[in-house]
Write a structure and sequence with these properties.
The complex is a heterodimer of chains A (277) and B (270).
Chain A lengths: L8 E2 L23 E9 L4 H12 L10 E5 L9 H13 L3 E6 L2 H10 L29 E9 L16 E3 L8 E4 L4 E3 L8 E4 L3 E7 L2 E4 L9 E6 L3 E4 L2 E4 L12 E6 L2 E6 L3
Parallel strand pairs in A: 1-7, 2-3, 3-4, 6-8, 7-9, 8-10, 9-11, 10-12, 11-13
Antiparallel strand pairs in A: 2-5, 12-15, 13-14, 15-16
Helix pairs in contact in A: 1-2
Chain B lengths: L2 E6 L7 H14 L4 E5 L7 H4 L10 H5 L5 H4 L1 E2 L6 E4 L12 H13 L4 E5 L6 H8 L3 E6 L3 H14 L4 H5 L5 E9 L1 H5 L6 H8 L3 E6 L2 H9 L10 H13 L16 H6 L2
Parallel strand pairs in B: 1-5, 1-6, 2-4, 2-5, 6-7, 7-8
Antiparallel strand pairs in B: 3-4
Helix pairs in contact in B: 1-12
The chains are: A alpha/beta (277), B alpha/beta (270).
Chain lengths: 277, 270
């Protein structure tokens, strides 16, 4: 799920990647980038259980996670794995088609493991343990052993990533989001005043509002805000996700198709309902 | 400065080359000085559709690599005096194209007094297609009324708004036009094909022309005469309308409804 060069990734960081035409281009550029990275939080050290759980979850959408970069989060395991166990876990995750690109957890504790498996420690990526207290009642410990969350990794200092940091205005996108494009609103809501085509992705740390037709994917609460919602004027979505809980629509229920719809999360369950009726 | 129009689609086989040949010929018939360039390096076709395959000596890659001058490589159309073709190379691959080289050829054509340069894009979103669209001022996105073609066109429209020189320099948008080809109103009525309104709605763009499905198109390709030159054909009339709309004229859409059967046809079941 990392951004590729041809994606137009709109972010508040606003990195202008347009080279000036008449300037000779340097052979390399080093710059801060923002990549959406899947985070796999594990609660077991048994590679078999992890593989089964992941395969089961992906069976309905086998292509969705193929070659997706994933960070393995060890924060939630009771005891840290030893090197052999960690290698087995990485192997299990790789077998599902995802590509492990880093470890997360207590940086000092996992440093030596990370060095041994030649993966970086992505500490800035540590899961924001949960947002504001108002949302706490919805928190229920999920029963499954594996939890997937889409998180935005950042190379900025972790301080700016503190939970609850919210820009006040929403990111406004006025053009149609085309197939293959991705728009991400970091620390805020996203408002798309045009349509979102099939194969396009709109993501926000807050809510996602689409005032045209939503035919692609909409992902709200990418940093785990379970109170985030998705609103659209014409619902034809391929996938909706809030705080990592997603639903794929192979067929859209007739009462929702083409209608104004909102999506919200209640515990571990996603609800999609008509608005304004 | 010449107006650069890319004819593109993402998907193959939807009618890009047919459209390039017809739009180039249509503009030339309206007394514009036109050059049409085949960007499909390795799969040269435009020369066949234009009927000048036996006159190709030098090609686009030769010009870029400095093996010949642009004048030597431009092939003058045998029917229209102000239409020229720059053929693709059949023996090279798309890596022979460079941004610098393409830019130089386009500038040279502009300096030579060409008013329109039509870039016939290869299918896909690789280098050839990228370079065909990169310098464009306008784009004609060719789409068939079926879902995979519509999705690929959507992808191309996304690239046009981000991966072109205009987009990168913030120099205004590439003007986008949709051209629907292989349109069959009776199949649309039966629900077997997407309608003009469906395509317009999904892609959120206006349509510059609807070319009806017609046996004349294949016949024209095989005889090496762009279909727009066949004044009897519905497809040709539709292409002429599209060229007029590209030039800013307002024209009602034709051939988008199922033709009503005449009295005799109904009486005699013909």
């Amino acid at each position: 799920m990392n951004s590729q060069s041809e994606l137009s990734l709109t972010s508040p960081a606003g990195i202008n990647n347009a080279p000036l035409a008449d300037k000779p281009q340097a052979p390399i550029d080093i710059r801060f980038g923002q990549l959406g990275v899947l985070q796999l939080r594990i609660r077991t050290l048994d590679p078999g259980v992890i593989l089964d759980e992941l395969s089961g979850r992906f069976s309905s959408a086998p292509g969705f996670f193929r070659r997706a970069a994933v960070c393995i989060d060890l924060l939630t395991v009771k005891t840290l794995p030893d090197l052999d166990q960690l290698r087995a876990i990485i192997e299990a995750v790789s077998r599902t088609g995802m590509i492990p690109i880093g470890l997360a957890g207590e940086a000092t504790a996992i440093e030596s493991l990370a060095v041994a498996v030649k993966l970086p420690v992505l500490s800035a990526l540590r899961t924001q343990m949960r947002p504001g207290p108002a949302l706490e009642p919805l928190q229920a410990e999920p029963e499954s052993q594996v939890e997937i969350e889409v998180e935005a990794s950042s190379s900025e200092p972790p301080a700016s990533d503190a939970p609850g940091t919210r820009d006040t205005t929403a990111l406004l996108h006025t053009q149609m989001v085309r197939s293959g494009q991705r728009v991400y609103a970091r620390h805020r809501d996203l408002v798309v005043s045009a349509g979102v085509a099939s194969g396009a992705e709109v993501m926000a740390d807050g809510c996602v509002h689409v005032y045209g037709s939503l035919r692609g994917r909409a992902i709200a609460g990418t940093r785990g805000d379970t109170g985030a919602r998705i609103f659209c004027q014409e619902f034809h979505a391929e996938l909706v996700s809030i705080a990592g809980v997603f639903r794929i629509f192979e067929t859209i229920p007739a009462d929702l198709s083409g209608k104004p719809v909102q999506v919200w999360l209640d515990g571990e369950k996603l609800h999609c309902t008509r608005i304004g009726t | 400065m010449a107006e650069i129009i890319v004819v593109t689609s993402g998907k193959g086989g939807v009618g890009k080359t047919t459209t390039s040949a017809s739009i180039a010929s249509g503009l030339a018939r309206r007394d514009k000085r036109v050059a049409v360039i085949d960007f499909d390096i390795g799969l040269r076709n435009l020369d066949l559709i234009m009927g000048c395959e036996r006159r190709v000596v030098y090609d686009f890659v030769n010009v870029i690599q400095g093996d010949c001058t642009l004048k030597q490589a431009l092939i003058k159309d045998k029917r229209l005096d102000n239409l020229y073709l720059l053929a693709a190379s059949q023996t090279r691959d798309k890596d022979a194209l460079t941004e610098e080289g393409v830019s130089r050829v386009l500038n040279e054509l502009g300096a030579d007094g060409f008013e329109y340069i039509i870039c016939d894009s290869p299918a896909g979103i690789e280098k050839g297609a990228h370079l065909a669209m990169y310098f464009a001022d306008q784009a004609v996105v060719v789409v068939n009324p079926e879902v995979s073609s519509v999705r690929d066109s959507d992808r191309i429209l996304g690239l046009l708004s981000s991966k072109t020189k205009r987009a990168e320099l913030g120099n205004g948008k590439v003007t986008e036009h949709l051209l629907l080809t292989r349109y069959n109103p009776s199949r649309v009525a039966k629900g077997e094909m997407l309608s003009v309104a469906d395509v317009k709605e999904i892609l959120g763009l206006d349509i510059v022309g609807v070319i009806p499905e017609s046996p004349d198109v294949l016949a024209a390709s095989n005889s090496g005469v762009p279909v727009i030159m066949n004044d009897e054909s519905d497809a040709a009339i539709a292409y002429q309308d599209a060229v007029d709309r590209l030039l800013g004229e307002e024209k009602p859409m034709r051939f988008t409804e199922v033709p009503k059967r005449g009295l005799f046809a109904r009486m005699f079941g013909g």
